[in-house]
Each structure stands twice: as structure tokens, then as C-alpha cells.
Amino acid sequence: MKRRAAAEAMTLVADGMTLGLGTGSTAAHFIDLLGEAVRNGLSVKGVPTSEDTSRRAEAAGVELIEPDETTVIDLAVDGADEVDARGDLIKGGGGALLREKIVAAVAKRFVVIADASKKVAELGAFPLPVEIDRFAYGLTARRIREALVAQGLPGDIALRHRPDGAAFVTDGGNLVVDCRARRIHEPALLDGALKSIPGVVETGLFLRMAERVIFGTADGVEVLRPPAR
Ligand SMILES: O=C(CO)[C@H](O)[C@H](O)COP(=O)(O)O
């Protein structure tokens, strides 16, 4: 299903494009397919959203660039952890949310690829990742908890750890707090409240950003085009 979604996104790629390359297992399918196309003569440049993606794209033979003020990203393709009916997303399961959001926000088109299991009626069953600065992170975590409770959500948060027990550190050197909000009724309000906390670097709420979401299903693809708001 992930591969099908990635293959459909490949139909949006044209020669000469600069592409934002997402992170995660679904984005990895896209990068592999892109590598195949490059070997068959396609000429594109990629802006990776994580060190993992950078390594994968390099191995696939995709030319990578360091973006500067003049860079135009024609199309960014990335996965998601949850997608609601409006095309709003939770991302950051892989911890790349900050770079993913920087790239998605500047891209002319941001296209999400996902397997059909990522579709939800309301965001929040997947714990919302929030990237925070390391300095006094306990104080920032406390304020995140308070912000969740103020929105009527459970203040159930956990600092993310790696499988070996060490704190998970993002490519940018920050920490990640996962918020088990369960049902986020007002994602924009929550996003604003979290981002107003000094120490919060970025949230995994990607709201009104996706131009379309391509779901790979058991026998094809389904495309969600977010309604105008
Ligand atoms: O946001 C992400 C990484 O930070 C990924 O896109 C998200 O976690 C989905 O991953 P996968 O495609 O492996 O299900």
C-alpha cells in the first residue's frame, strides 16, 4: 500500500524539478522509485528532510542540494502518521518533524503519501510529537502538559527514548515529547497554544498544508483533496 501511494506520487514528478524528500518508510519507497527513474534518465534535485533520507537518497543516486534563499522546491512528498478528512496531519513519528515542516511549508506543492491505515476521523490517537529545546526541558514539558489540560485533553506526555534507553535526539539536536492527546478536537488551537511556549521548537500538527493525500489501498489508490476552508 505504501509502495502504491509512492508510485502514484511519482506521476507528479517532472524532469528538472527540485523535490522535498520526506522521511519514514513510505517516503523511502518514493525515494527508491525516484532513484530508479533517475537511473532511467530523469533529472531532479532533492532536499532531504533527515539524515536518514539523505543517506537513502544518496544510495539511490538522487542528487541532493543544500537549499539557499533562491531554492524553489516544486514538490515535497512525505508520509504521515495520521490524516483526517480535512487533510490535516500528525507527523513526526520518525522524529523529523521540524525539517519536514520547513520543507513542506516552502514547497509549491506538498503531497502526502500513506497507507490507508493512516486515515482517522479525528487526529490524536497517534501520540502528537512536539520537538523541544534541550535546555530546561522539564520546564517546557510541564508547560506542554498544562497546555493540553487547558484544552480539555489528557496531560499524558512522555519524553521520547531510543530503544537503548537513551533520550531520542533529533537531527537538529533537540528532544521530542510525545503527547497522548487521544482526540484533538481543535488542532489549530492546540498548535497555537503549544507553539506559544518558549522551548517548543515545532509541533507535529501539519494543518492546511497538504495539497492532496494519496492513500495506497489493498487494490489501488485513493486521493483525498482537502476541501477549501
Ligand atoms: O513524519 C514522519 C517522520 O518524522 C513520517 O512521515 C511518519 O512517521 C510516517 O512514517 P511511515 O511512512 O514509516 O509510516
TrEMBL record:
Superkingdom assignment: Bacteria
GO cellular component entries: cytosol
One GO term (biological process): pentose-phosphate shunt, non-oxidative branch
Keyword Isomerase: yes
GO molecular function, one term: ribose-5-phosphate isomerase activity
Pathway: Carbohydrate degradation; pentose phosphate pathway; D-ribose 5-phosphate from D-ribulose 5-phosphate (non-oxidative stage): step 1/1
Active site: E100
Coiled-coil residue windows: none
InterPro entries: NagB/RpiA_transferase-like, Ribose5P_isomerase_typA_subgr, Ribose5P_isomerase_type_A
Binding site for substrate: T23, G24, S25, T26, D78, G79, A80, D81, K91, G92, G93, G94, K118
Chemical reaction(s) catalysed: aldehydo-D-ribose 5-phosphate = D-ribulose 5-phosphate
Annotated keywords: Isomerase
Record-listed E.C. numbers: 5.3.1.6
One Pfam family of this chain: Rib_5-P_isom_A
Assembly mode: Homodimer.
Membership in a protein family: Belongs to the ribose 5-phosphate isomerase family.
Function: Catalyzes the reversible conversion of ribose-5-phosphate to ribulose 5-phosphate.
Official protein name in the record: Ribose-5-phosphate isomerase A
Organism: Amphiplicatus metriothermophilus
Taxonomic path: Bacteria, Pseudomonadati, Pseudomonadota, Alphaproteobacteria, Parvularculales
